[in-house]
Amino acid sequence: MPTRVQILKTEMVTHNVRHYRVEKPKNFHFGPGQATEVSIDKPDWADKKRPFTFTSLNDEPTLEFTIKSYRDHAGVTNALWGCEAGDHLLLRDVWGTIQYKGPGTFIAGGAGVTPFIAILRSLNAKGGLQGNRLIVSNREEKDIILRDEFEAMDGLETLWTVTNDPKSSLLQERIDTAFLKKHIADFNQHFYLCGPDAMVADLRAALEELGADVASVTWEK
User: CATH fold of 104-219, please?
Assistant: First the structure.
């Protein structure tokens, strides 16, 4: 049975990403990196479910989602863009397989960084980020989600790359086998992957080819 919660606040993150701060149901628990299926409680949308990761921490009094809206597609994320404080969402069971196993490299494509937000925030709050690295690919520099927050996290190394922004001073490289060989010195570590399915599949194969232990690679199954 879905749980109905009210949107308390929305906040712009990038030109197409927003934070949605919503009510937290009583006795509602989740871990960093976990998600739930969300619907918009409006006619024609209540049965349309999409998975979104919690980007708040479990000890906070409210819930937060950080969601990219695809404005060129008439789907849930586009409809969410039209939601504001006072509207309601429907939440379902908590699930998710991206859980922190130890220091390593987090690799994300675009909005695939969202499952890592709560994990890295949790580690940051505990002073446990040393030895972790975040590598994120976006089309353009303006697409980077929470860049300032990640760069301010003590102990977290960040590496940004863009694939369609020739005016940017950031790396202009796709994350592929050649990229991994160039920018990662040690493959005997944990790896956390999230992004488009094809990207994740390619990176899993590339990491194995480069000597990473399959058991050390975590992705959303």
Answer: Rossmann fold (3.40.50)
145-199 pLDDT tens trace: 999 999 999 999 999 999 999 999 999 999 999 999 999 999 999 999 999 999 9
* DSSP 8-state class, residue 78: H
CA distances from 9 to 19, 87, 170 (A): 8, 10, 32
Radius of gyration of the chain (CA): 18
Q: Are 162 and 175 in contact (CB under 8 A)?
A: no
Phi and psi for 171 in degrees, rounded to 5? -55, 145
Sheet holding 190-194, edge to edge: 156-162, 132-138, 104-109, 190-194, 217-219
Q: Which of 33, 30, 41 is nearest to 63 (CA)?
A: 30
What residue type is assigned to position 36 of the chain? T
Query: Would you list the domain boundaries of the chain?
Result: 3-95, 104-219
In CATH, the architecture of 3-95 is Beta Barrel (2.40)
